[in-house]
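Hi Q.,

Before the meeting this afternoon, I wanted you to have the zinc ion prediction in hand. No need to reply - just skim if you have a minute. The sequence and ligand are here:
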Amino acid sequence: MIKIYNTLTRQLEEFKTIEPKVVKWYNCGPTVNGLMHLGHSRSAIAFDTIRRYLEYRDYKVEYIMNFTDIEDRMIEVSNSEKRDVLEVAEEYLRYFRRDMSSLKIRDGTVNPRAMLHINHMIEFTRKLIEKGFAYESGGDVYFDVRKFDGYGKLSNQKLENILQEGTEDAENPNKRFPADFALWKSKKPGEPYWPSPWGEGRIGWHLECSTMAMFYLGDTIDIHSGGQDLIFPHHENEIAQSESLTGKTFARYWLHNGYVNIDQEKMSKSLGNYVNIVDLLKYYTADAVRLFVLQTHYRSPITFNEDSIDQAQITVNRLFDVVLLTKNYADETNEIKETKFSDLDKELSENIKNARKDFIEAMDEDFNTSNGLAVIFKYSNDVNDYLRKAENINVSVIKEADSLFNEFRTVLGLFEDFNSYLSLDTVEKLIKLLIEIRGEFRKEKNWEMSDKIRDDLKNAGISLEDTPKRILWKLTEQK
Ligand SMILES: [Zn+2]
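Predicted structure with the ligand bound:
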């Protein structure tokens, strides 16, 4: 049974979809006014992984993630770069798609763009006015929050507190009440605009997501997600608009991911800017970034610094070694059918079953990837031990082991691109090349250089053994 922490009820709830085995999910995507950074990637990777897990558990997931291409922050960038907002959107959208694809974040079922839905948003606004939940004032249209009883239920605050905290644009004389929010904003100099029944202007950001969610998924959806910073006012306002329009629950489960804190002190100067994904990926693999993100439960904050991502890279490389070794054995031993099972075979077979069960148990509990990864690391150690100790590798057991690694990889989106790593074959060629070079040094009696190569290889976990006929190399135990 899958349990989800629901921001709306502030508790863990059993996950029940409206339609059996179908998940209707809207995730608030990024505003495309700059390059994709760690904060964006954390949210995208966390929800991409949850989506993959739900698919692993046999759900069909309709996953809608928008790109916000028109709102205040888009206009700011368009003005500062002196370029049309559409041009800014096109460019950064292209970069976002590139970076998301590098990080193996899968495309949504649809990735809608707000600008293509302006007519639907105008229609939404018109209906809210008709129903008495919104009003036109000086060419703007506002949502009347006092008309919606549940205002504040997601962020768990009363209207008095919201007013005390101070609301955006509170002094605006066009508003009847300081907490009311804009559905439609009249045209301002230097801003893009569209025609509407209330004159030329543009749509309010909050309405964009409500409209697109309902357009693609219907009045009531299963999951709505986004970063914690979106709980108020964005998601609170989405609920108010949508539920006022339909009289139905808008989203049954609200999921919010934690922040990424950048530990500036522990960032090297040369890489100072690598919180942008495109820069980060010059130094680290996508798998390291995914692992770094998934090591923490999606609701908890993450602190990013160079040490932590370095560590993630080391961890993911070690995991890869075992995954690849297992895959090589499983592929090689295609034809033979095993009949004998040693104690080691039986033990690994048991470990495989337990690892699958434990992983599901961890992930079922609000998608706890942190615990899920702990299961995978233990499992990887078990497989590694088996490969080192077993006198004969049992075909059927190693195939099972490989297939469980594949399940884990699919859920976590790891090692989709085997080519981004050096294969063992390539490593072997490189080591042989070094051995050859060392041989040349030895011929020249350059013991200093030949010893250096041997010692450096040893530090890298590769030991050389000089035998009379040839030089043998093997991997030594690494801490
Ligand atoms: Zn949104």
